[in-house]
Amino acid sequence: MKVKICGITTMETARVAVDAGADFLGFVFADSRRKISPIDAKQIADQVPREVKKVGVFVNESPETINEICQFVGLDFIQLHGDETPEIASSLNRPIIKAWSIQDKINPTTFPCDYYLIDSPKGAYRGGNGIAFDWTLLHHLPIQKEKLILAGGLNVENVAAAIQSVHPAIIDVSSGVETNGQKDPIKINAFIKTAKQAVQTLKESVKK
């Protein structure tokens, strides 16, 4: 299982996340208080190790603009968080993460993507509202665990329980590692450490 820290806006935060063991960094190019410009994202992405994957988050953006930003910044994945169609996804030049709210009618067989991100109910923006939802709802979705990204209201207090319940491929966090709307190095380190320990505990319990 891997960890994605989303809403990266500074080089300092990126370094903290990478040093703590983050596997993915998310840059938001849609309306959000965590929105970043392509120029600033590129300055950060250029200094991120190759093995840490860089994800661009877009909402109802044109395929031309998405592809242009991906090329300029050096992104590895495109996360679609709006009403994008399968046809739009097929025209993009990076692997796709398609995000849904748990309230949506989710039919993964109709959308071409590499990962399915399930978020909490929508808040002020297209992302979740920062409140954890009932994870047992995911048990009935026809999504392969190795393609499932769990988001929405995760933090150091509940991430171990989330991993135990859902067994996702990737855990995605943003507001859960913030203090007063800013990324908190202490919370980032604690979250990733707790998540990785939970995965190890889960592996050990399976062996018994």
UniProtKB/TrEMBL annotation:
Q: Give the record's pathway.
A: Amino-acid biosynthesis; L-tryptophan biosynthesis; L-tryptophan from chorismate: step 3/5
Q: Name one GO molecular function term.
A: phosphoribosylanthranilate isomerase activity
Q: Which keywords fit this entry according to its UniProt record?
A: Amino-acid biosynthesis, Aromatic amino acid biosynthesis, Isomerase, Tryptophan biosynthesis
What family is this? Answer: Belongs to the TrpF family.
Enzyme Commission (EC) number: 5.3.1.24
Q: Which NCBIfam families match?
A: PRK01222.1-7
Q: Name residues in a coiled coil.
A: none
Q: Which biological process, per GO, is one annotated for this protein?
A: L-tryptophan biosynthetic process
Q: Which superkingdom, per the lineage?
A: Bacteria
Q: Which Gene3D superfamilies match?
A: Aldolase class I
Which HAMAP family does the record cross-reference, listed alphabetically?
PRAI
- Reactions this protein catalyses: N-(5-phospho-beta-D-ribosyl)anthranilate = 1-(2-carboxyphenylamino)-1-deoxy-D-ribulose 5-phosphate
Q: What class of enzyme is it?
A: isomerase
Identification of the protein by name: N-(5'-phosphoribosyl)anthranilate isomerase
Which InterPro entries does its entry note? Aldolase_TIM (IPR013785), PRAI_dom (IPR001240), RibuloseP-bd_barrel (IPR011060), TrpF_fam (IPR044643)
